Amino acid sequence: MKLRLFDTYTRSVRDFEPLEDRHVGLYTCGPTVYDYAHIGNLRTFIFEDLLRRTLEFNGYTVTHVMNVTDVGHLVSDADTGEDKMEKSARRTGKTAWEIAEYYTQAFIQDCDRLNIKMPTVLCRATDHIQEQIDFIRCIEEQGYTYSTSDGIYFDTSKLADYGYLARLDIEGLQAGSRIELGEKRHLTDFALWKFSPKDQQRQMEWDSPWGKGFPGWHIECSAMSVKYLGNFFDIHCGGEDHIPVHHTNEIAQTEACYHTHLANFWMHGYFLQIDEAKMAKSSGEFLRVQTLIDRGYDPLAYRFFTFSALYRAKLNFTWEGLDAAAKSFDRLRTMVYQWGEPGIVDEDYIDQFEEQVNDDLNFPRALAVTWELARSSLPDATKKATILVFDQVLGLRLAEWQPQEQVIPDEILELAASRTKMRQEKRWAEADALRDQIIAAGYEIEDTPAGPRIKSL
Ligand code: AMP
Ligand code: ZN
């Protein structure tokens, strides 16, 4: 079955054909590193990882580029307010550079915990200032810019199909808006370069042909994707919130300079929500991978949890939902462990699995095929070999996992030994009292023909 993917640009599921034989250029918008990634952000990065693994499963080599936004993302997407990095620096007393480095490393660690493959190129916006300046000059030479007292702006009215990706109704937007335009000429115009404030020294600022300042948020992705993948590559991804602003503006920039809409496929991951509300980093309160670990979950249980919905549907997070996923995941990996050594794969099941992942990444159904295989009457060695092939895409580290040996503390073992003695002496009430003590300490005791077995509750 051919790989088919939903393309937001054409709003249709299309057969995937790489632009270049057997090779795929993939660009995914990366994290803004002013804070930890929350599990919502990571849902999008898991979706992108599943996409990459599916492409590799189909035999393509993938050049995966991801940016790290470490400058220029302002508190408001409308190019106003403080830079998120500088705000975080002020709050913590660290420099903006230290903040960026710290949260970039934290992001890499979270990806590792979730078995998200590292991109081929992970590139920082601050390492590509010259490329961004060159790109803005190109847009300027094509006549799409104007300057105001606070920066250089893109004049979106000059681009006939501005907003096509999001099917923006520009006139409707303009009519319905009560936002002060200031010196901006149109509501949808956006900053390419912002000047440093006159009365204040920014921690991150650079000289440019237009004056000292810093790049706008959208230009880094246009400049870095062109540098590493060319001006028209295979797939560009991000979260659904990128459709109306960030990706719309990336396309505008690249159209102005290179007359292409940047990527052949545009794909978007839909949001993780908590209590039906968007989980937002800027709201301050959010769940991150460490929160899950602190509550006793394996981060891979969260990865498994995200398979329960299509990437193009919102997913509601609940602790009950995560609990159910964790139990189901444990059941699966215990079975896989008990199957022992792998034998020869079952091609029929591989085909069924491929059919589901190639159908626009239908992971809920791919997981259903996985369970069918697990419960089938095939020999264990066949099941094991086959599921390990699935796991190249699922990324659940099924080959490595082993049940953990439980360490039962000495005092519990002693209580259990006394209880056995009481039972032998038929001193039932005392034996039962000891059993209650064991339960109160968080353990359970089960009498088996081989003797009592102790487990933590
Ligand atoms: P940021 O670090 O804010 O630049 O976001 C990183 C990625 O996470 C982007 O692709 C966003 O679109 C995506 N994202 C933000 N919030 C959520 C959410 N609640 N669920 C899924 N993805 C999200
Ligand atoms: Zn981007």
- What is the averaged pLDDT score? 93
Query: How is the biggest beta sheet arranged?
Result: 5 strands, parallel
| Biggest sheet, spatial arrangement of strands | 5-4-3-10-11
| Small molecules (ligands, ions, cofactors) in the structure | adenosine monophosphate, zinc ion
**Total of DSSP H or I helical runs spanning 4+ residues:** 15
CATH architecture annotation name of the largest domain:
3-Layer(aba) Sandwich
* Helical content band: 40-55%
* Secondary-structure class: alpha/beta
Q: Gap between N and C termini, in Å?
A: 46 Å
Number of structurally distinct domains: 3
The proportion of residues in beta strands is 15-25%
Number of strands: 16
- Outline the low-pLDDT stretches: none
Radius of gyration: 27 Å
Rough outline: elongated
Fourth CATH level, the homologous superfamily of the largest domain: HUPs
CATH top level class name of the largest domain: Alpha Beta
Return the CATH topology of the largest domain: Rossmann fold
Topology:
Layout: E1 4-7, E2 12-15, E3 23-28, H1 39-57, E4 61-68, H2 84-92, H3 96-113, E5 121-124, H4 129-141, E6 145-148, E7 151-154, H5 170-176, E8 190-195, E9 213-215, H6 219-229, E10 232-239, H7 246-258, E11 262-269, E12 272-274, E13 277-278, H8 289-294, H9 299-306, E14 315-317, H10 319-338, H11 347-358, H12 363-375, H13 380-394, H14 410-424, H15 428-440, E15 443-448, E16 451-456
